[in-house]
Design a protein that fits this description.
Its main location: membrane. This is Phosphatase PAP2 family protein. It is found in: Cell membrane. By secondary structure, the chain is mostly helical. It contains eight helices and no strands. The protein has a single domain, classed as Up-down Bundle (Vanadium-containing Chloroperoxidase, domain 1), CATH 1.20.144.10. The relative contact order is 0.17.
Length: about 180
């Protein structure tokens, strides 16, 4: 079956990975992408549960709960769909020495970034633009670094927003009532 999104992916992968390339973006995106990685988010989650709850209350617990759920959803989809990463398929991409062994669809970093951004935007709407811009930069970084196709990133955006919203609107309060 032919991929109906191939032209979209090819167009934006070329524009983001090749045409935007410069030494400043190389440095920025290579380092910035890690704010949505498992290491940083693991530390942030522990910090939020231990210390953050005093400052921001239930937003801390809700963020961690939403992250766990969105990560599970993303990992299940990665295993079911088993999409190759762009640099496994195309040899002329700027790869920055990154060599990941898992699959591409959806972007886990983007899923996590938009899960956190959605959760905090719902609690702190005056800061929503900042949270969304931060998550958007993570999303761009994943294609810039050639570890994800643009459609992988879009799927991560959708999953992150939906899970963040559903946990905020339905899951968290019902879980507290159940406990």
């Amino acid at each position: 079956m032919k991929n109906p999104f191939k032209a979209f992916d090819d167009y934006f992968l070329d524009r983001i990975n090749k045409k935007l390339k410069n030494k400043y973006f190389d440095f920025f995106f290579y380092n910035y992408t890690n704010i949505a990685g498992p290491g940083f988010l693991g530390i942030l989650s522990v910090f939020m549960l231990v210390i953050g709850k005093r400052w921001i209350g239930s937003a801390a617990v809700e963020m961690v709960l939403a992250l766990v759920i969105s990560t599970i959803v993303a990992q299940i989809l990665k295993r079911i769909i088993s999409r190759s990463r762009p640099y496994w398929v195309s040899k002329n991409l700027n790869t920055y020495g990154i060599d990941l062994r898992d699959y591409s669809f959806p972007s886990g970093h983007t899923t996590a970034a938009f899960t956190v951004a959605t959760t905090f935007s719902l609690y702190y709407p005056k800061m929503a633009a900042l949270f969304i811009v931060m998550a958007f930069l993570v999303a761009v970084s994943r294609t810039y670094l050639a570890v994800h196709y643009p459609t992988d990133v879009l799927a991560g955006v959708i999953i992150g927003i939906i899970v963040g919203y559903v946990v905020h609107m339905y899951v968290y309060d019902n879980l507290l009532n159940w406990l």
